[in-house]
Amino acid sequence: MDDGRGLVTTSLWDRAPEAGDAVPGAAGDVAADAARRRPSRRRLVRWAVIVAVVIGVALVMTWRGADAASDVPLDPRNPQPTGSQALGRVLADHGVEVTVARGQAALSGAQIDGDTTVFVARTSALAQATIDELADLSRQAGRVVVVDPDPWVLRYLSPEVTIAQTRRDGADLAASCDTADIRQGERISHSQSEFQLRDGSPTDACFTTTGHSVYLSVPATAHHAPLVLLGSRSAITNGEIASADNAAIALRTLGHSARLVWYVPSTDDIPTTDQSRAADLLPPSLVPGLVVVLMAVLGLMLWRGRRLGRLVREPLPVVIRAVETTESRGRIYRRAKDTGRVGVVLRDATRRRLAGYLGLPTAAPLPQLITAVSDASGRPAPEVGWLLAGPPPQTDDEMLGLAGSLAALEKEVRPS
């Protein structure tokens, strides 16, 4: 072709394979298929291993279930220094039937009676709705023991008692009393709160300082069963149970009855409409954590923001000629023997160029383009329509003939 438009495609199609060209064959196809399948198989194996690990972890967590160790402070299944697993096991070894009631539903089904001691070690997870249930059930108990209660909880359980929150981390406190739970001269390590009856009536009180006592036994009233308040939370933990006389005091206080219901409150029991303890449900580390995250985001913005600036043009290390891309595509079409695809590419390119020659939009309707080309070239419209949108070529000869006819049509229409 004298104008050279169809020369690249036709010459590439007829070009003999070069020394570096691969010659397809049965062995080559098998090797290529194996190479394509190999990464897919590796990905499948990797995903299968990940799925198996996830399923295994889920099964292990399900198998452990409720018997898994806890990390909640003062929990009877918490083996950490802040837990109370040691106290729970020693009570069970001494013949006390220890029933752990986790949540309000478990407490309701614990069958509390006059030979049962109800023990509440953590009141921070209680709300008014859960305290109502606790108060109703504890009236049937032989004794209720509460350790270091929150002031608002104590006001609800026993309004006749005042609380003073203090922290004594120095020397052990010695008892100057003699009660069923505490002997004269016994010592307790640390204390977090102290109690006193508002009317000053006589009662069993130990470790008393300035009128307030770390241990206070309140007689039964119309609102509650006999109530024992212990202001030392650390005395029943695994880390402090062996210090001073903590173990003896805890065992007598909680082993007063043949059966002990250890109530572990859960925040899941708090109704969603109860906002009385909404602030307490937030973890203490929330605000410091948000501050750290904010500082990290600001630092990241400063660090990466310095790198932002105007775009810089960078020359490519290698310049690739457009004809090389065309030759590569030609080799692909030739090896695939896809004459139909070559015909589509040739007709699309010819239609775009003819529309430009005639001043038509690139996306002009085909009938409009055929009419305009027919008027400009003098050829019949059916012939032009066959060239621009006819059936795809089936053989190499048909493809070469189509390429030559399209090039001739462009020459007739293209302005000189």
State the gist of this model:
With 416 residues, this protein is of the alpha/beta class.
CATH topology of the domain at 85-269: Rossmann fold
Radius of gyration: 44 Å
The percent of residues in helical segments reads 40-55%
What are the secondary-structure elements, in order, as H or E?
HHHEHEHEHEEEEEEEHEHHHHHH
What report would you give on this structure?
It contains 13 helices and 11 strands. With 416 residues, it is α/β, with parallel strands linked by helices. Among the domains are: 7-13 and 319-413, no CATH class; 85-269, Rossmann fold, CATH 3.40.50. The strands form 3 sheets. A 7-stranded mixed beta sheet has the order 1-11-2-3-10-9-8. A two-stranded antiparallel ribbon has the order 4-7. The protein has a two-stranded antiparallel ribbon with strand order 5-6. The radius of gyration is 44 Å and the shape is rod-shaped.
